[in-house]
Every structure is written in C-alpha cells, then in structure tokens.
Amino acid sequence: MVTTQATKTNDPLTLMTEDVVGMAEAAKLFPGGVSVASIYRWADRGVKGVKLETIRYGSKRQTSVQAVHRFLKRTQ
Fold this sequence. Notes:
By secondary structure, the chain is an alpha+beta fold. The chain is 42% helix and 14% strand. It has a three-stranded antiparallel β-sheet. A hairpin with a 2-residue loop joins strand 2 and strand 3. Helix 2 packs across helix 3. The radius of gyration is 11 Å and the shape is globular.
C-alpha cells in the first residue's frame, strides 16, 4: 500500500494485515535504535504533526513494520 502525507492509514484493519510488532521491537527498527518511551510518545503526540500508527489488543499496544517505515518517511 502506497501512502502519502495526505492519506491517513490509521485504519486498524489495515494495520492488522501488516507485520505487527510490539512497541519494544518497533524501537529497534529505527536507525540507531530509540527508547520505547519515544515510541509511545510518537504514537501519542506525534512528530511534525504525524503520529505513529498503533493498534491495541486489550492492554497491549502494537504497531507494524510498515507503519514505522511510513512514519519515518513522513517525518523526514
């Protein structure tokens, strides 16, 4: 799925069809690695008006490899 800044893919069903990872694993996907706290902050508050897409499974919060790539592309 190709996404642009104007297109929102915050649809949980779309995210569930991607390669879902936990927040700690998502932190390792960022260049140089980042803290898990940063991942949660980017999901809650965003960077440059862009939030990291996440889904919740009960009390667990997850994202996808593709969502991390979209987030990096949009915030550069």
